[in-house]
Amino acid sequence: MTTDGQAGDGRGPRTFRDGVRAGLPYAGASGVLALSFGVVATDLGFPQVAAIVMSAVVFAGSAQFAAVGILAAGGGLGAAVGAAALMNSRFVPMGFALGPSLRGSRARRALEGQVVVDSSWAMAARGDGRFDRSYLFGHTAIQYVAWVVGTTLGVVTPNLDAQALGLDAVFPAFFLTLLAGELRDRRRVGVAGAGALIALALVPIAPPGVPVLVASSAALIGLRRS
Amino acid sequence: MSGSTVWAVVVLCALTTVVTKGVGPAATGSRELPAPVVRVVVLLASALLSALVVTNALADGDRLAVGADTAGALVAALLLWRRAHVIVVVLAAAGVTALLRALT
C-alpha cells in the first residue's frame, strides 16, 4: 500500500492485473511459508498427498499449521479442526467488511468471499471502507498458485529443516510487511498497539487463534469519531 | 495419526474455512455498512495484523517466548522502517533466525 497507490486518490478501482502484479512479492513470501508447511507437515507424519490437498482446499496458512501441529501432538479430530477454525475466525469480521464490495446475490457474495487471504484483503482495501474486488481476486490468485506449488516443493524436497532455515520467522515478517502498509496515521498506530497488547495478554490464557480474534476489538475505537 | 483422521481433518478444515469466509458477505449482501461500522472496518487491518505479528513472533503455543525468530522479526521491522522490499524483509528475517540458531 506504500508503493502501489491507495485508491481514493482520484483513480479508478485497481484491476485484476494490478492485483497480480502487486501480489507477486507477497506470493514469493507465501511460497516460502507454504514450503515450510510442506516440510513441517511431512516431518510430523502427515501423508504427502494430504499435505498438498490440504493446501489446495483449505488455503489458510495459520489454520493448516495449527491443525497439523495438534494432530502430531496427539490431539484428536475435534481439537485439530477447532484450532484451525479459531485461527480462521478473523475471516468473519474481515468478511463483514468485504461483503458490500462484492457482487451479486448473497450466495454469490459468499462464494466470492472465499477468495480472501490476509494480504489480498489488506491491500485491496481502498482506505474508505470499500475494497477493489478485481484487485483482490488477482492478488489472491497468484498467492494460491504460490501456496500450492510451495507446499508441493516442501513435501517432495528431502532433508529440509524448516527450523534451521529460520522459515518460522517468515510468518511474522510477512504480517509486519502488511502492517507497515497500514500504519498511515496516529489512530491506526494506536489501534495496532492496542491489538498487539490484547493478543499478548490473551496468549497464556486463551487457545491459539482467540487472541487474534479478540484483538480485532481494538478497531471498535472507530465507533467514536476521530 | 491414522489416514482416516488426516482426511477428516482436511475436509472439515476446508468446510469451516468456507463458512468463516462466507458468512460475512452472505450476511451483508449489497447493503452498505453504516458510517460508524465503516470507521471500524478501516481500522480492522491494523488490529488484526499487529496481533498476527506478535503472536507469531512471541507466542509458542500458550507461552510467551523470545527466540531466534523474535530477533528475525525485529530485523524485519528495522528493514521495513528503512523501506526495504518485502522479499528482502522476509529473506532477512529467515536468514537472521537461521544464523542465530546455527550459532547457539
Please give a handful of descriptors for the protein shown.
heterodimer; A: 226 residues; mainly alpha; 2 domains; 11 helices; 63% helix; globular; B: 104 residues; two-stranded antiparallel ribbon; 4 helices; 2 strands; 4% strand; flat
Total number of strands of chain B:
2
Number of discrete helical segments of chain A: 11
Q: Characterize the overall form of chain A.
A: globular
Mean pLDDT of chain B, as a whole number?
92
Overall average pLDDT of chain A: 90
Overall geometry of chain B comes to: flat
Most extensive interface, chain pair and sizes? A-B, 109 and 81 residues
Structural class of chain A: mainly alpha
Distance between termini of chain B? 33 Å
Task: Give the percentage of residues in beta strands of chain B.
Answer: under 5%
User: Domains counted in the coordinates of chain A: how many?
Assistant: 2
Percent of sequence in beta strands of chain A: under 5%
C-alpha Rg of chain A (nearest Å): 18 Å
Order of helices and strands of chain A: HHHHHHHHHHH
What is the tally of helical segments of chain B? Answer: 4
- Run of helices and strands of chain B: HHEEHH
Uncertain stretches of 5 or more adjacent residues of chain B = none
Strand order of the largest sheet of chain B: 1-2
Helix/strand-derived class of chain B? mainly alpha
Tell me the major beta sheet of chain B. 2 strands, antiparallel
